[in-house]
Q: What sequence folds into this?
């Protein structure tokens, strides 16, 4: 059996610790070509460019562009014959239905789905609290081991098992480590529907605030078992099988409105 070929991208940038940890882990059994943003492109969603300058990099290619740019550029021009697109490892979880459209990490996987190429998005849940802010944690490649272990398992086995016959991409979120430092279990999940954005208008400025992360820090989350957020907060690897195109349904009320449009 030949080794799989992988287009590896992310949104934290090609020099990020999580990206290198994933590149090294997948390179042990796969032919990996990096096509990743040259700089941090977090939370850009599926923003696209019309031109993206490309520079050769020791891992592949660095683009002055977005994660979605990288997927299109890779699949169309730089490494068009890959078996799979893998995006990550993002430092910070990408969990909850409302986050999926904002995440550059997830958007790179979504873009691959429109090429009919299987894709996996990987993120690391870094809990807040303690002496350090969350963004100053997870600075060592070993901190990403739960995510790299999950990535290796899924890249090796998901497609042969027929997983991508029933979904377009997998959104994977892993804890920094399992309970008591042991290996984390894996759970198939659905995106949480919890939404707690607030906005305050004062002195000509609107301040937007996502209260979900504060609630996670205190454990105040109503998500039931089986959701992505509940899984990672409790120390499990969350795997959500998702589809990319928006679903559509016929509605009698809308049909009636369309029929009366010119009346």
A:
């Amino acid at each position: 059996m030949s080794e799989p070929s992988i287009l590896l991208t992310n949104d934290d940038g090609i020099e990020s610790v999580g990206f290198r940890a994933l590149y090294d882990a997948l390179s042990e059994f796969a032919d990996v070509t990096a096509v990743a943003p040259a700089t941090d492109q977090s939370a850009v969603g599926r923003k696209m460019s019309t031109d993206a300058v490309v520079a050769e990099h020791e891992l592949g290619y660095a683009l002055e562009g977005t994660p979605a740019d990288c997927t299109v550029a890779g699949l169309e021009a730089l490494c068009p014959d890959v078996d799979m697109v893998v995006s990550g490892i993002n430092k910070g979880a990408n969990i909850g239905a409302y986050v999926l459209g904002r995440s550059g990490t997830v958007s790179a996987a979504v873009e691959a789905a429109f090429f009919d190429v299987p894709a996996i998005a990987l993120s690391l849940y870094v809990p807040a609290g303690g002496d350090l802010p969350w963004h100053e944690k997870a600075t060592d490649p070993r901190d990403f081991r739960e995510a790299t272990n999950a990535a290796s398992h899924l890249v090796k086995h998901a497609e042969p098992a027929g997983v991508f016959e029933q979904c377009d991409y997998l959104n994977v979120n892993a804890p920094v480590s399992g309970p008591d430092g042991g290996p984390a279990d894996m759970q198939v999940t659905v995106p949480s529907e919890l939404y707690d954005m607030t906005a305050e208008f004062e002195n000509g400025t609107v301040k937007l605030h996502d209260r979900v992360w504060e609630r996670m820090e205190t454990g105040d989350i109503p998500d039931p078992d089986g959701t992505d957020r509940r899984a990672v907060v409790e120390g499990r690897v969350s795997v959500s099988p998702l589809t990319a195109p928006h679903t559509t349904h016929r509605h009698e009320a809308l049909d009636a409105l369309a029929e009366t449009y010119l009346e």
